[in-house]
Design a protein that fits this description.
By secondary structure, this protein is an alpha/beta fold. It has helices at residues 19-27, 54-59, 66-78, 97-109, 122-129, 142-146, 167-177, 231-242, 248-252, 259-275, 278-301, 307-320, 323-326, 334-356, 378-390, 400-415, 419-439, 444-468, 478-494, and strands at residues 3-8, 31-33, 50-52, 84-88, 112-116, 138-141, 159-162, 186-191, 199-204, 218-222.
Length: 495
């Protein structure tokens, strides 16, 4: 068998061809090129016989299959005694999908592969921009980025997005980037890097798909965000705080000592959500995230697990529990999604039992309510207990059942004279109210929190009104306080 020689044509200027590339191209009886639309080819001697795969682009409707078809034909040509010389734009191992496929295929078929390097699009792009790659330049493919919903690189470092060769790709890339960058974020389009017609276009992110200059040699340079905002930067700060030269308080923390702070931050986050205060949400989400990353760093320091372990397990769980998104399961509404979710969780529990050598009938196996966190607020815990029990049919047949149970529990409280018994009956009443709320599709925890907020807000208005009138709350009658309360309610409803 012959040899497959892959030659890098460079970015476009014939003068950028390496000596080895020139000799390989000019000495071959024929040269196959991925595309004849490359400026370097015009600088080759007329004696070089060129064959292109442009017909594959024209006859293959699915662009994803183009490189597969080209690589297969190159492998067939390479199997001939004379082999084949295959030339590609730029460097053969930079953003060249066909070469990746050829490398795999050649190894499987026992073919010899020779790669002759070429100048990639990266070097002339950096020259046109006047920037250095060493501060952490990230290089990604525009087709891949456009297919995502969030960028696959972080925003503290610059990124070069290759192959933004059409307005459609630019639009897809723009929408993905806008999940991380502001619409007005400054970026640069680089057209024809490495050619005499190179052009650098500075514009805002939202404008990139409007450029009239986008063509097959267009790339996008994304500048870093002005503030440190990547997850990696946060991990570095927390790791520094926990380091020997870091903060004494952070260094002494353990999973157990941080429990109170995690709970406090969770409740402060809930308060921000109750207020629907966007600025407060942003701050409290950060404080809550701090607790998660700090716990992960404690685990790293103790050799327990890493943040990557946490994220990898979460990613796998999200994909596994959403087969209607990432698999072939159909879920046409939210109810079907919940059914699918519960089926997957049940399968996970069964798999865990098998791993532990247990069966569902094993008295030591995990019960239906065992996974409900014991530290949940009482209302939320009661609701979860009831939902779990309802899944196996332990529930009222209709809403009249829980409504009647509330009345029954009130009567039992009124019939009890013993304080301890009244306490138990009051608990049963609250549990029944939670069950009624569940049937009404009301979140009892949220409903009570909102009632608490309303009470506190209205009572503060009562205090202010009394102070404005020069009255002491302690000296006012209940009727006077009720009047101020009613006025506070009226003002609130009007607002």
């Amino acid at each position: 068998m012959g040899i497959i020689t892959i030659v890098g044509l460079g970015p476009g200027d014939p003068g950028d061809l390496s000596r080895a590339a020139w000799e390989a191209l000019t000495s071959a009886p024929e040269v196959w090129v991925r595309t004849a639309r490359h400026p370097t080819l015009s600088g080759l001697p007329a004696s070089v016989k060129l064959q292109s795969f442009d017909d594959v682009y024209e006859t293959t409707p699915d662009f994803a299959q183009v490189y597969g078809s080209i690589s297969e034909r190159v492998l067939e040509l390479g199997a001939r005694p004379e082999g084949v010389v295959f030339a590609v734009p730029g460097h053969p191992l930079v953003a060249e999908r066909s070469v990746q496929l050829i490398r795999v295929g050649a190894a499987e078929r026992g073919l010899t592969l020779r790669v002759i390097a070429g100048l990639s699009f990266i070097e002339p792009t950096l020259t046109a921009l006047g920037v250095d790659a060493l501060p952490g330049l990230q290089i990604v493919d525009g087709i891949d980025v456009g297919a995502l919903h969030h960028p696959n690189f972080h925003a503290d470092l610059p990124a070069l997005v290759a192959q933004v060769y059409s307005a459609e790709i630019a639009s897809q890339v723009k929408l993905t980037l806008m999940n991380q960058y502001p619409d007005e974020h400054p970026v640069q389009l680089i057209h024809g890097a490495g050619t005499a017609d190179v052009r650098v276009e500075s514009l805002a992110l939202y404008e990139i798909d409007r450029s009239p200059h986008i063509a097959h040699l267009t790339s996008l340079y994304v500048t870093p965000l002005p503030r440190r905002s990547s997850f990696e930067a946060l991990q570095e700060i927390i790791a520094h705080l926990r380091a020997p030269e870091g903060c004494p308080w952070d260094r002494k923390q353990t999973h157990l000592t941080l429990r109170r702070h995690l709970l406090e931050e969770a409740h402060e986050t809930l308060h921000a959500l109750d207020l629907e205060d966007v600025d407060k949400m942003r701050e409290e989400f950060g404080d809550l995230l701090l607790q998660i990353v700090l716990h992960a760093q404690v685990a790293i320091d103790e050799g327990e697990f890493t943040m990557q372990d946490v994220i990898a397990e979460l990613n796998a769980k999200l994909i596994r529990r959403h087969p209607h998104v990432f698999g072939d399961v159909v879920a046409e509404n939210a109810e079907a999604v919940v059914t699918t979710w519960e089926a997957v969780k049940a399968a996970e529990r069964e798999a865990q039992r098998a791993t532990d050598g247990q069966s569902a009938a094993d008295p030591q196996a995990e019960g239906l309510l065992d996974s409900v966190p014991p530290g949940l607020p009482a209302l939320a815990q009661a609701e979860l207990y009831q939902k779990r029990a309802a899944k196996v049919g332990f529930d009222w047949p209709d809403i009249s059942g829980p409504r009647a149970k509330v009345s029954e529990e009130i009567a039992e409280i009124e019939a009890e004279a013993d304080p301890d018994s009244r306490g138990r009956e009051m608990g049963d009443l609250l549990f029944s109210v939670v069950n009624w709320a569940r049937w009404l599709k009301v979140d009892p925890e949220t409903a009570l929190r909102e009632s608490n907020l309303r009470f506190a807000r209205r009572f503060r208005q009562v205090e202010l009104a009394a102070a404005t009138a020069g009255r002491d709350l302690h000296a006012m009658t209940l009727a006077e306080l009720d009047a101020l309360w009613d006025e506070a309610k009226r003002v609130e409803r009007g607002a």
